[in-house]
């Protein structure tokens, strides 16, 4: 009956069977070998080391979380990611200034009050412009001077589509 239960257990749970097998296998090898005491001691150390490794493996396998625990953790991570995204959206909407209504394009020689001169504005002020973040604002500063707002297409990531949005906002100008 004990042998039947041993076969039902996973291989790493069959401790007596594995140890007996290893001892017998090494015992036969020692008996047929030179028979030196050093060889026997070496085999005993190796058997002890293998038994320790098996115990560590068994402990590690016992400490694995169950499938339901993993699913609960994944649900919690998804919930927290959703809350993080929501908090980021709220923070973005709280820090974004209200866009000023477009009053048409400014004359080529100057900017109206409230507009951002792309040739003289700092990085923070440039970020008020639609689609301009810190990286693009830095590129604008590096690529100055601009002869017109249309020249913003020199900035990496600003093509005709983005430029249309920037112009529609009416905030960017060249002074």
What does this protein structure show overall?
With 175 residues, the chain is an all-alpha fold. Among the domains are: 2-62; 116-173, Photosystem II 12 kDa extrinsic protein (DNA polymerase, domain 1, Orthogonal Bundle). The chain is built from 7 helices and 2 strands. The protein has helices at residues 2-8, 15-32, 37-62, 67-95, 123-126, 134-143, 160-169; strands at 116-117, 172-173. The chain has a two-stranded parallel ribbon. Mean pLDDT is 77; it is low at 101-107.
**Overall form:** elongated
Task: Count up the helices.
Answer: 7
Mean pLDDT score, rounded?
A: 77
Major sheet details = 2 strands, parallel
The number of distinct β-strands equals 2
**How big is the Rg?**
36 Å
Distance between the termini: 94 Å
From N to C, what is the helix and strand string? HHHHEHHHE
Assign a percent range to the helix content. Answer: 55-70%
Strand ordering within the main sheet? 1-2
Q: Which stretches are low in confidence, meaning pLDDT under 50 for 5 or more residues running?
A: 101-107
**What share of the residues does DSSP label as strand, in percent?**
under 5%
Structural class: mainly alpha
